[in-house]
Amino acid sequence: MKKFGITLCLGILALLSPALTSAADTPAIVSFNVPTSLESGQVASFAWTINGGGHSFIIFCSQGIKLKYVSTNKTFPCDVKTAISPAASDGISLIVANVSGNPRILTVRLIPKDGSGVEYLAGASEVPIYVNPSRQPITIFYTNATTTVSGAATTFYWTTLYLDGVNLRIACNDMITATSSTYGVGVLPCGRTIFPADLPGSGSVTVKFKNVSPTEIPLDVTLFPAMSPGVYDGTRALTINLLVASDAQKPIALSYFTASRQKIFSGDSVSFSWSFLNGSGVNLKLSCAPSVTYSSFTAATTTSLPCDTYGWPNPLSPTGSTSVTFSNSGTSGQTSTISIFPQRKDLTYDGSQVASVKINVEPAAKVAPPSAPSAVASTPAVSTSSPTAGFLGAATTKPAGAPISLGGKNIFKRPLDIGSRGDDVRLLQIFLAKDKSVYPEGYATGYFGPITARAVGRFQLKYGLVKSSRESGYGFVGPKTRTLLNSLQ
Question: Which residues contact 171 (CB under 8 A, 6 or more apart)?
Answer without folding.
Answer: 190, 191, 219, 220, 221, 222
